[in-house]
């Protein structure tokens, strides 16, 4: 089996330093005081053998740009507790999103009585969101913050940001729109309010001692939407379900959301991020191999060589 396939299957066994979770479409890191998440590079895409590779959704870069723009927008206009944005950037086929790490527990980890205390504060923040209004739908276009890696290096240019709406996953899963964002049409006018659109207990980080909200996170589906888009998922222990069969009235609600998108927005199909090699239009040269130095058929020798290559690949990745 090629080493690359071994890495696909065992991503959780060969994590970079600081990586605490590997999902089928992204990785999470806690490095110092930073919370970093990034998309998977193509060689990390899930594989089920026999050449079957499952590409992850392509919309994460736009979702995380939206999140970054929203964090800036809300931090300048409200007192809603938010994680402090550090930067977003693209690197060799992967997209990164970095904020300061927020200490605390999720609202869902608290007891029922403590959740009632948190809900009272949360409703105040929801009211603040509803006070932010626009006559057009969309995401505030903000100059997504540039990044300086080291103080003596030049600043990396800010990431360009287009106002595209990203539909919540509960809608995408029903209508198989995993690689689509939505551009509101120019003639769409109305009364739109600021929505989070994924405001479940898992996205409310709380100080377990004071029961004060430390941060509301994951704003990637947010923006100016019809007010009815925002559902009170914080009242449900399981949060917004992606299963269309769960939740009273959820199927009708999801269909209504999809109908609004189709009626008022144009689909924007998002391609996968290109690697640096693909952008340069080049292919890596294949080195000549001396047949006298090829691996023997010995299982033990092949396993040892594969193990060394996996370790080397893991070390290279950690330096990225």
UniProtKB/TrEMBL annotation:
InterPro entries: AGP_Transferase, Aminoglycoside_PTrfase, Kinase-like_dom_sf. This is Aminoglycoside phosphotransferase domain-containing protein. Residues 280-320 are annotated as: Disordered. The lineage of its organism: Eukaryota, Fungi, Dikarya, Ascomycota, Pezizomycotina. Pfam families: APH. Residues 305-314 have a biased composition (Low complexity). It comes from the Eukaryota. Residues 55-223 form the Aminoglycoside phosphotransferase domain. Gene3D superfamilies: 3.90.1200.10.
């Amino acid at each position: 089996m090629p080493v690359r396939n071994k890495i696909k299957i065992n991503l959780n066994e060969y994590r970079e330093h600081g990586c605490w979770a590997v999902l089928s479409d992204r990785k999470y890191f806690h490095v110092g005081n930073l919370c970093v998440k990034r998309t998977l590079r193509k060689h990390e895409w899930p594989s089920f053998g026999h050449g079957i590779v499952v590409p992850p959704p392509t919309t994460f870069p736009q979702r995380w740009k939206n999140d970054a723009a929203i964090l800036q927008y809300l931090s300048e206009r409200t007192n809603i507790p938010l994680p402090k944005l550090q930067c977003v950037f693209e690197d060799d086929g992967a997209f990164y999103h970095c904020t300061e790490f927020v200490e605390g527990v999720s609202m869902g980890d608290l007891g029922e009585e403590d959740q009632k205390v948190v809900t009272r504060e949360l409703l105040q923040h929801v009211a603040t969101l509803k006070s932010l209004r626009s006559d057009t739908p969309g995401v505030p276009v903000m100059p997504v913050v540039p990044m300086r890696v080291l103080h003596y290096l030049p600043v990396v240019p800010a990431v360009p940001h287009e106002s595209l709406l990203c539909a919540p996953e509960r809608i995408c899963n029903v209508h198989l729109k995993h690689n689509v964002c939505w551009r509101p049409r120019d003639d769409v006018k109305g009364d739109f309010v600021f929505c989070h659109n994924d405001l479940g207990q898992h996205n409310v980080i709380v100080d377990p001692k004071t029961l004060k909200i430390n941060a509301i996170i994951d704003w990637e589906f947010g923006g100016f939407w019809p007010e009815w888009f925002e559902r009170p998922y914080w009242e449900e222990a399981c949060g917004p379900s992606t299963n269309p069969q769960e939740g009273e009235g959820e199927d009708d609600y999801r269909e209504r959301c999809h109908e609004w998108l189709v009626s008022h927005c144009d689909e924007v199909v998002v391609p996968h991020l290109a690697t640096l090699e693909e952008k340069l239009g080049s292919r890596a040269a294949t080195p000549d191999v001396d047949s006298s130095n090829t691996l023997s058929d010995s299982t033990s020798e092949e396993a040892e060589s594969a193990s060394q290559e996996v370790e080397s690949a893991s070390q290279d990745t950690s330096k990225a």
